[in-house]
Amino acid sequence: MSNPLLAARGLVKAHGSTPALRGASVDLRAGEILAVTGASGSGKSTLLHCLAGIVRPDEGTVEYAGERLDRLPEKRLSELRRTDFGVVFQFGQLIPELTAVDNVALPLLLAGTSRTAARERAGEWLERFGVRGQEALRPGEMSGGQAQRVSLARALVTGPKVVFADEPTGALDSLAGEQVMTALVHTARESGTAVLLITHDAQVAAYADREVSLRDGLVTAEGTSGSADTAGSASEAPAEVSR
């Protein structure tokens, strides 16, 4: 079995006096879709933030491709988040003043890509996620499913090695959620991108190759998920999101 692309060992993290992680350990391999499940307050989002280098653990180690994320200076962490990591949140967190195409182009612009090239590439990714023709819409003018697809396009436009998805369907109805997950899995498989998927929904977790469960800040169970049942839909081009 290949070495993990991303590995956490013994993570401890508290928010003030409230412990969130109590020694959690997890591996993510290149190209793997891993679901992290657990009840609200179990530490799922904190685990994601530590793995993505957004916050530093109080104790424990996080290693990515041979680098200790928990020891890296902020400048290097910011660079990794621009190049190797993509992040999708439950509510998308698109910039409300920017159009869809400019939201997706933003990571490229921050990396030094010219505006013309960035917008062209952003348009290609909007097309891949089935929202071509929505380039001029601002987040307030989109449906929830459309906005989340734009968020996915923004997370993947730089060609990251890992996408961190924190409850990406939590704010969507079941149809839009299924379409968003199909689009995410299809694109991740196509590009060989690893995905760390935080979810409390068993149907969403079934899209993953493997599932780990968190309880009170500890990994308590691990097993193979139901990705075989969704492989057929994931291999097809994503359908349009209903408004």
From TrEMBL:
It comes from the Bacteria. Residues 6-241 form the ABC transporter domain. Residues 221-237 have a biased composition (Low complexity). SMART domains: AAA (SM00382). Keywords: ATP-binding, Nucleotide-binding, Transport. GO terms for molecular function: ATP binding. SUPFAM superfamilies: P-loop containing nucleoside triphosphate hydrolases. Pfam families: ABC_tran (PF00005). This is ABC transporter ATP-binding protein. It comes from Streptomyces dengpaensis. The lineage of its organism: Bacteria, Bacillati, Actinomycetota, Actinomycetes, Kitasatosporales.
